[in-house]
Amino acid sequence: MENETARDDLCPLCLTTNQCAVIKNKKPETCWCMKMAISAEVLKRASSNQESCICPKCASSEI
To answer: What is the largest CA-CA distance in the chain?
Structure first.
């Protein structure tokens, strides 16, 4: 759909809130994603959808 716009606060994989600290104008180092390892497979899958952050649940998934 041409008129759809991406929401930076939504996970591109499951469309729930991604809980990104940067979107909330907080320091990047305070974000949950800086405290966990995210597999290359999950990152590849997420980046193929769009550029917004993924959520903690999807980040911890095994695909």
So the answer is: 36
SS (H, E, C) 13-59: CCCCECCCCCCCCCCHHHCHHHHCCCCHHHHHHHHCCCCCCCCHHHH
Q: Is residue 1 part of a domain?
A: no
Residue 58 covered by a domain: yes
Task: List, for residues 19-46, the tens digit of each pLDDT value.
Answer: 999 999 999 999 999 999 998 888 888 7
Residue-number span of the structural domain to which 35 is assigned? 9-63
CB 21 within 8 A of CB 28: yes
Residue entry with tokens 């499951």: 14
